[in-house]
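Hi there, hope your week has been kind to you so far. No rush at all, and the record is pasted right below.
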Amino acid sequence: MTRPEADRTDQTDQTDRTGEADAGTSGTTEAPPPPLLELRDGLTEVVDTPEALAAYCAALAAGTGPVAIDAERASGYRYSSRAYLVQLRREGAGTALVDPIAFDDLAPLQEAIGETEWILHAATQDLACLAEVGLRPARLFDTELAGRLLGHPKVGLATLVETVLGRRLRKEHSAVDWSTRPLPVPWLEYAALDVEVLVELRSALGAELEEAGKTEWARQEFESLLRFEPNVRAEPWRRVGTHKLRGRRALGAVRALWETRDDIARSRDVSPGRVLPEAAIVAAAEAMPTTRAALLSTPGFKGRGADRYASRWLAAITTALELPDAELPARSPRGDGPPPPRAWADKDPVAARRLVLAREAVAQRAAELRLPTENLLTPDYLRRVLWTPPVERAPQPLAAGVAERLRDLGARPWQVDIVTPIVVEAVLAADVEPADEAPGDPDV
């Protein structure tokens, strides 16, 4: 199961703003902070009965305009990424805080929303957990992604609300345990505020997109999000931090300990880090303790999780020690893509030149368009096309082949139109052997 990513909140959202110096004075004054965002309609009761859900569904269906939606998970507390609260707001219907744990699914909400556009912030964080309770958008607008396409330097919800709408969001409850029942009133107020101005923010960002000529880009990006599926890593245990370990046997211990911890965490529905820290897994893989005393003296093996499951940790280490060499994990992760960029110069100098040239040109074009480079094109797509470009070298057939490859990988039409000429130019230029210069290091 894919673990939840970092919380969407910008930690910089709470920083003070410093004003300019007053005319005729030598000191500085701080501009007053923007006003705090407040609930216009007050806090409503949590929807946790069939009757309350039916009443809100009727109001939602009768409302007008798009529906603002958000979800709260218990990241850092629970193993699952399920939604523990769903917030909705629509003009004419007001805000609802729905407890999905109280229902088998939220199919009545899905029916009430119908084809209406969703507004989400950082949609990829919430789409999967909303789908689990039966909520899937027919159309959507992602305010975070819109902010990226517009070149906003910070795109956390609180930051965009402040910079675009001139209001300030409270974010003090962003990392609480949303599986708590009953949910405290301050937490519910915080959750309701997350959808309070999403409709207004969507309207403002939509106008910015239109002015910047990026409305069609955004439409294609949002349509792509409708097909979003969380990425599932083939070997998730490698994320523990194995780069300092020596030997495949140590990697085998990390894998065995990680899988043991994952089984425990799943069965208890608690965050894996609360069972055993990742640093402890790495320390045990280095030390390979074989007795309980040695295990519990290993750095990181403190607390109830270390002691309670000591026999299982030792069994995992023993399994790794006894594993035949042929069954130990490879030093590098398996993958179907090109080698790491740092290895390109040795494996294929021409491909390395292609990558250097294309990366520089893509970065420059992204800056001109006021886009993050990764939003102009997913870096992995660029590497794959440049490692094995089409064999044609006549410009037109080469461009057609590059465009086809990019589309097959998942690039949107607007990205293909912009990046294809850059890739073609890099491929053709790299085929010319440089006179006295070696390609730069393609690793970034």
